[in-house]
Amino acid sequence: MARRILWAGLALGPLAAVLRYGVDAGDVPVFLVSAVALVPLAWLIGEATEQAAEHTGSTVGGFLNASFGNAPELIIALFAVADGLPNVVRGSITGSIVSNLLLVLGVALVATKQEQLNQRSLMTNLLLVGAASLLFLIPSVAGWSGDPDRHSLAVATIPVAVLLLVVYAVTTVRNLKQQRSAHQTSGRQPSEGSWSLRNALVTLGLATGMTALVSEILVHSLTGFAEAAGLSQFFVSAVVVAIVGNAAEHGGAVVIARRGKIRLASEIAVSSAAQVALFVAPMVALLSFVVRPPLPLAFRPVELATIMGSALFVAIVVWDRKGTRREGIMLLAAYALVVIAYGLSGNR
Length: 348
Hints:
The chain is mostly helical. Helices cover 82% and strands 1% of the residues.
């Protein structure tokens, strides 16, 4: 029954487009329909990722989910850059990293029984997030005084962005080769009735395209909706936009965790956070020179502190290679504190 409802819910994506571009409905109904529409889309991406993982293994499956899931966020960020909303972009990047580490992983742990985690892969991604946050200090510290969006900081961001992309490419290629070899050596075969790898990838692509469209519609309606709720621009970008932009990873990780596959769910959460830090953020910064205006990766102290703190906290949780519901609750409590901090921070 639930699956039928989710399949039927996929029709909400086109409905959101009609409300936005066909009848020009108000921001509140457009926002609500778009938000609900992302739920079945997130489920479909999670379903297709799980099917793909039957052929590739959990680490590659997590990478696929993070890649397809973060594509809408990259598109959203570029639209925000073009609209002259640099603080929204930086806030959503910060919120995406933190929400994946604390919210998504926390819910995944709560939704499943204790199970062994892939400590090596998770710790590698957490170290990458920590390294990225340290590199962000280069343009950020200078941006704590004066105009944080001045051109000189955008130029200073270029070598940081290039270095992050190089590190991401090298580590990703190495990890995927290792995990593919290990998966082939294990001799594990796909379960009976599973989708073909081709069908899973095609479904991922189509679902991601619709998610990008719906996410863009939702972001354009966020300002009016946030004003009605009395929320700050930073809070909206770091909490609401971040959660919406990562709806695919959020939903996919939770669905997969409920089926007892916490290894794959944890890979989705942590690898997605690493991909935002090492791929989405630098790509947006470099592409902003084309889209205009150029975007400096100059984050506020509260943003860098929550990124570093989240990575450290998750590293402590996964150090023993086990994931428990109690630890999941702790991660959710930490995320609640972060949300409160973002609410008190106000706009830049």
